[in-house]
Structure formats: C-alpha cells, structure tokens
C-alpha cells in the first residue's frame, strides 16, 4: 500500500512539473516588447539595478539609513514572487509606499512601457523561475485584456506536440524534458517511462538520451574547457562544473586517470549560485585564460597559481553555460553526461566511470 502511495505521489509530482514546463513554453509578452523594454530599462532603471538587472552588491544588507539597496531583477532575487499588477504598481508608485527609495515613474512611463520593461526583465528569467511565477500568479492582464495563465489545456498541449509512440493508439510528447503518453483522443494519459516488457528496454530513457546529446551538440567545443585524453582519444564525457563545488574538485583530481585511459573531459561552466559569487568569478577567469585546462586546476585548488582577469568575450560562455544548464535540467554539480546520453547527477569515482565507459564504448 505504501509503495502504491509513493507511485501515485510520483505521478502527480511529474504531472505538476510537466504543467510548469508548459507555463514556461508560452510567455505573455512578445519579442517587440522585450526589445523596446530593453531600451527603456537602460534609460530609466540600469543606473540603480545594473545594466543586466544584476542588482547592487550586498543588496541584502541595509545601508546606514536602514534602507535596502536595489535588488537583482533577473530572477535571482524575490521579483518573481509578485504578480504583474504588483510589479506594475512598484514601477508606477516607486518604493515610497513600502519605505523604499525607488522613484515613481507614473508621470514618465505609460502602462505599455512599464509592461515592456517587465517583459525585458522576465526574458532574463530561467524557464523554471518564469514557470513558478506564472503558476503562482494565475491570470495575466496586458493591454486591457485578461487572459488565462500560459499553458492552456493539458490535453491540447499534449496532442498539439505529439507523435505516434511504439504502442498502437498511444501518442507521446515531451515538454521541458518530461515525457507524456496519451490516448489519441487526449482523454487518458500518464507521465513516466514506457518499457518494452519483452526486451526490458526503457524506451523513454532512450528518447531522453537522444535529446540530451542533441542539446549538447549545440555547445561549441571552443566554449568548453577540455582536458584531452592522453594519446588517441577513445571517448569523452561532458561535465557541468563549478569551481566552488567540493565534489567537482574531487572529480577533477581524478581526471588524469580518465585522461590516461583515453577519455577526454569536456567541461561546461555551471556556476551554482548564478551570476554572482566567487565561483562565478573564478569560472570567468578560467574561460579567459590562454591555458584553460591549467587555469581550471588552479581554480579548483589542484595546482598552485594565480588566476587572471575574468573580463573577456570568451567568459560569456560561463553565462551561457549557466542558462543552458538550467534548461538542460541541471540542479547541482558535478553533473555528468556519458557519450550515449546517460545522465549522472553528482560525483562518481573515475574507476566507476571507466567501468561504465568500457562496457559501453571503450574496447
């Protein structure tokens, strides 16, 4: 009975995650609003909240007058807690009603311009943050019209994005990495794995692996830090990493074992704390270094040395890696993707990884 309850709970959790991904698929604003909002933001908001909406350093600490500095608006702070009406009201009335210092813009910006600024800010929010905001705040009103929160009918979403599954009369679709199977009329469905009971093959996991590899193909090798195999490369693993992560450092110390066995390690930057903190700064410095592999060892405490500046165009790969990781489903580091698309969350000893690789591809 207890096992059955766990299964039911898992179903509803998966269903909720699927619905949240649907919210993120359809946002209330359009590209023109984002473009216009970016210009308006730079003209009216950037001087306090930062050019990238990153907020003030130490924004959680009150100043000498007991006031809080301007917070980040890029989804890393509490902005996503508030419905569109409250966000508009804050721009319109300023911070005075709540004891803040933000000026009021009611006589400077129209409602449409305020919406455009909010659209530009929300375009910076990762899908999971926008989905949480959208689900939390229900109906959205823009331009005098009220519409239901993005997402629409779950059945309609499934059928609109579906294709035939290996089972006759059942269709399949994927939104936000969650697979859903349904009858062709959309009446019945389930979230989970489809298994061929004759062969024991998990057909859904096979689809996930293909999806992961397709996503990784979008990342250029020059945007990674690559620790090459010694001699002829036999295969590789892809690792989402952060320099401030203890287990990332532990894995990095074992990379020579992988390299010696003919395995290259491809690092994608994933600063766990987002675009802030020492880990983020160190990753940018690594990506700006002429010898990224050596810099990664310094940043992870494996080698001695000094990191250089993190101010260069190549460091944009750190920001892009973070956003890519969020969309990929990374929740912690290290996160390892094997050559066949298998996903491993967390640290694994080099010996275990090599055993997996030998069984799969290293002959």
Detailed description of the structure:
With 363 residues, the protein is an alpha+beta fold. It folds into three domains: 27-147, Orthogonal Bundle (Cytochrome Bc1 Complex, Chain D, domain 2), CATH 1.10.760; 154-216, Nuclear Transport Factor 2, Chain: A (Roll); 222-360, Glutaredoxin (3-Layer(aba) Sandwich), CATH 3.40.30. Helix content is 42%, strand content 14%. The chain has 14 helices and 13 strands. The chain starts with a helix and ends with a helix. Residues 1-8, 21-25 and 139-152 have low confidence and may be disordered.
Topology:
Elements: H1 2-25, H2 31-44, H3 46-49, H4 84-93, H5 111-122, H6 127-137, E1 140-142, E2 145-147, H7 154-160, E3 163-164, E4 170-175, E5 178-183, E6 189-191, E7 195-196, E8 201-202, H8 203-216, E9 225-227, E10 235-241, H9 246-253, H10 255-260, E11 263-269, H11 277-288, H12 292-299, H13 316-328, E12 335-337, E13 343-345, H14 350-360
Parallel strand pairs: 10-11
Antiparallel strand pairs: 1-2, 3-4, 4-5, 5-6, 7-8, 9-11, 10-12, 12-13
Helix pairs in contact: 1-6, 2-5, 4-5, 11-12
Please give the largest β-sheet: 5 strands, mixed
* Quaternary form: single chain
Gyration radius, in Å:
23 Å
The number of strands is: 13
* CATH-defined topology of the largest domain: Glutaredoxin
Helical proportion, percent range: 40-55%
The amount of beta strand, in percent, is: 5-15%
> Which strand order do you get reading across the main beta sheet?
9-11-10-12-13
Question: In sequence order, what are the helices and strands, one letter per element?
Answer: HHHHHHEEHEEEEEEHEEHHEHHHEEH
Could you say which structural class the secondary elements and strand pairing correspond to?
alpha+beta
Average pLDDT, all residues: 83
- Uncertain residue segments: 1-8, 21-25, 139-152
Shape: flat
CATH class of the largest domain: Alpha Beta
Distinct helical segment count: 14
CATH architecture field of the largest domain: 3-Layer(aba) Sandwich
CATH superfamily of the largest domain: Glutaredoxin
Give the distance, in angstroms, between the N- and C-terminal Cα atoms: 46 Å
As for the number of domains, it is 3
